[in-house]
Amino acid sequence: MSPALCLAHPRPDAANEPDREACDPVIAAQLRTALRVISRGTPLLLRGETGAGKEVFARGVHAGSSAAGRAFIAINCAGLPEGLIESELFGYRGGAFTGADRGGRRGKILQANGGTLFLDEIGDMPLALQARLLRVLDERRVTPLGSEESIPVNFQLVSASHRELGALVEEGSFREDLYYRLNGVEIVLPPLRERADRRELIDRILAEEAGAPVLLTPAAEMLLMNHPWPGNLRQMRHVLRAAAALCDGNLVDVEHLPALRTTPFSAARARAQLPLAEAAADAEDRAALLDLITEQRWNLTRVAKMQGVSRNTLYRRMKRLGIELDGD
Ligand SMILES: Nc1ncnc2c1ncn2[C@@H]1O[C@H](COP(=O)(O)OP(=O)(O)OP(=O)(O)O)[C@@H](O)[C@H]1O
């Protein structure tokens, strides 16, 4: 999977080309910065909430850099037991330990030679390995386990963490010297809820998941656009994958977004807050408006305000949908 984003586009030699695809301006600027510094051999440290797209960003940096076309090697430091990370990263010589492949194994660092090494969840790297990684970065040489020979290596380094490494340094679980070594430039990716390209992302991910362009009803659009997305793009992709599977044709409505309907910004409110002209006068609209009115304890002034309409318009709509003013 390689989400296009705008990430692949702004190469250093194309800095003046307008983005061919809509992109959040903050991320576009961050990408330009990242490409400029990585081309000088400065490591990048990415921070951002879970699912905010740190790996996708790192892949975008790789694709836009002079190492594009070479290896992009990602390793998740949180996902491996301590013993395994060591051989994964540094490799081993044949017969280095019981169970080792006879031919030995080239570690990820050597695989990244000439390309980009992406160390995800670097904050979870055990202290002993932090010391070895620091040595590799300083010496630009790797010594596989069980070997006496060190091998020269050269790669672009991008690390990522959803936790603040500075805080881990204070806490004593992360080496300060490694922190400064990794943190050539720190980039804090914005969470999805703050991105200006949410609408484009929804369309693109939905089309990817459905295999064809898909439309949204205004209520579904409002629900998707106003959701806080604590799991960011990963969560959005899952929600849209489900929506693509649930909707029969090429139109997604709120009932195809079941995971969002129970959240604070509920489907009912999304529907009821729509400008009235857009809302179809059907039974679901009636239920949605009634939900909102009940939620607001029949304070119709407030309901009208939430909908951005006058009280009179609200009364007319209630009448059309058969909601009685003296409803209990
Ligand atoms: N720009 C994008 N366009 C489309 N999908 C995206 C984009 N960025 C991220 N995603 C989706 O979100 C998922 C999570 O992205 P990614 O792994 O880059 O996030 P992360 O910040 O590295 O997550 P974690 O903190 O859990 O490591 C991806 O698998 C992809 O499906």
Automatic annotation (TrEMBL):
User: Which domain of life does the UniProt lineage start with?
Assistant: Bacteria
Q: What is the protein name for this chain?
A: Sigma-54-dependent Fis family transcriptional regulator
